[in-house]
Amino acid sequence: MGTPPATSPHPVAPPDTPGTSALPADAVPAAGPPRGRRVVRRLTPLAISAAGLLVGLGLWQWAGQRDPVLFATPGRSLSALATITEDGTLPSALLSSGRLLVVGLALAIVAGVGFGLLLSRARLLRSSTDWLLFALQSVPIVALAPLILSAFGFGLPAKTLVVFLTAVFPITVNTAEGAHRVPTTLLEVARTFRSSEWRIWKDVLLPHTVPYAMTGVRQGIAMAFVGTLAAEFFLNASGVGGLLLAASTQFDSATVLGLTLLVSVLAVALMGCGRAVEGYFARWREVRP
């Protein structure tokens, strides 16, 4: 009778089959968070925002019932908005303010992006104007209203200039910063391949600068919105700013609070659009070196 074959004290792993490879014993596929947890994570900010909105409306209602002269209730404020909407006052004011906002912001975007790119290519100009840009950005434009009024009067050019000045500086600064962050290796490679100045701008500078410029545009939208109301409030009582001024001088708290609510909703909507545009172009920043 033959002796049994010797066996190893350790088990022998079966040979790999074609197309497969052996995995370590502790290699467990990483599982994402449960679906319920992801849903809760997405809904939590919305729930917090909704709760804050309800608390704010409750406090507003309480203040309106406590002092009806100083604080109109949300119902009275919405009723006042409906009244000036039906007689055509509010639509006309919104059209006037929207036209001013679009014109001033468009001019600020063109000038801000153009000058920001110019600063990135002219280092001497950038080093000599950096301090001036930050100094002008810190000056409240409302303080310049008397000077603008004396130079341009009460018309549309004066109000457009106010909106332009409030929006152009963040756009310029962010655009110049984005162009300044372009890797020098890319510029050197472009010059090595004898790329023209136009190709350098088109293929190197602009793709890296656009995400930063969009951040400046988002900030410029908020500043232009404030500048529009300030121009209508201080230079010429027109548009939504003019309605706010007229209602406040008449102690019409319902119209004032209703217009304030409308302005807040419009500002949130504009900022949402700005964030969406910025988020779209921010993907360029993530994939660029």
Please describe what this structure looks like.
This protein is mostly helical. The protein has a single domain (73-282), classed as MetI-like fold, CATH 1.10.3720.10. Helices cover 76% and strands 0% of the residues. It starts with 34 loop residues before the first helix and ends with a helix.
CATH superfamily: MetI-like
Mean pLDDT: 79
Q: What structural class do the secondary elements suggest?
A: mainly alpha
Proportion of helical residues: over 70%
CATH architecture group name:
Orthogonal Bundle
Outline, from the CA principal axes? flat
CATH topology: MetI-like fold
Number of domains: 1
Q: What is the β-strand count?
A: 0
Radius of gyration: 30 Å
User: Proportion of β residues?
Assistant: under 5%
Which residues form runs of ≥5 with pLDDT under 50?
A: 6-13, 16-23
Identify the CATH class.
Answer: Mainly Alpha
Main β-sheet, in a few words? none
Number of helices: 10
Encode the helix/strand succession as letters. HHHHHHHHHH
For the terminal residues, how far apart are their CA atoms? 74 Å
